[in-house]
Amino acid sequence: MRTSPKAIVSVVGIAAFALVSCEQANASDKPSQHQKSSEKQTKPEAKTLTDAQILGIADAANGGEVEQATVAEGKAHAESVKEFARMMVKDHGAAKQKGGEIARQLGIAVAPSPRSMSLNKESDDTLTRLHEAKPEDFDKTYMRDQVRLHEKVLGMIDRDLMPQADASQVKSLLSDMRGRVAHHLAVAHSTLNELEK
User: Could you read off the pLDDT of 101-130 as tens digits, one per residue?
Assistant: First the structure.
């Protein structure tokens, strides 16, 4: 019995189609290299901070802002800078107090961490710079530091603190702080731009 060329082509075509279909089915079952790498990137990092340490970081950030603003209230020349400093004392003072209340509610002590110690050192360095600034340079020095510090704290809240907070009260504090810090950063940018004109 002879097989016609059309029949051979049909059988080969069907076999090839079946083979390609099987390969595609297998490929869709396995994650691609791109899928594997994006899964690694979105995996949450291991928890390294406790709520007590997160409150300690918030306390260090808020306390530093209040101390720097207190210096600025007495040494700033431009009314916009004095107004900004008053806002820092009010908002960061309230956040610092709220953090202490939350620690008491949760029955935990605010705990130090390498991040809070780093913020305390940075605040001390900023205070030194502010005390040593020439009167004509003070406003710009203060506002440049405010832009830099608020950018740092905003990034820390988003990247490190919010993802690791456990207690709803701590998350709420961080959410409120985040909104205020973002607003402060916008005002700091605007104030600095006016000073540098």
Answer: 999 999 999 999 999 999 999 999 999 999
Per the listing, tokens 């130090």 go with 112
Is residue 40 included in any domain, yes or no?
no
Are 26 and 61 found together in one domain?
no
- The CB-side HSE value for 146 (13 A sphere, CA atoms) comes to 34
Single-letter amino acid, residue 147: V
- Give 46's contacts (C-beta < 8 A, 6+ positions apart): none
Please tell me the pTM assigned to this model.
0.76
28-77 residue pLDDT tens: 444 444 444 434 443 444 679 999 999 999 999 999 999 999 999 999 99
In whole angstroms, give the CA distance from residue 124 to residue 130: 10
Same domain, 152 and 126: yes
42 within domain boundaries: no
Q: Is residue 29 part of a domain?
A: yes
Range of the domain at 11: 5-35
Q: What is the C-alpha to C-alpha distance for residues 127 and 133, in angstroms, rounded to an integer? A: 10
Q: Are residues 11 and 71 in the same domain?
A: no
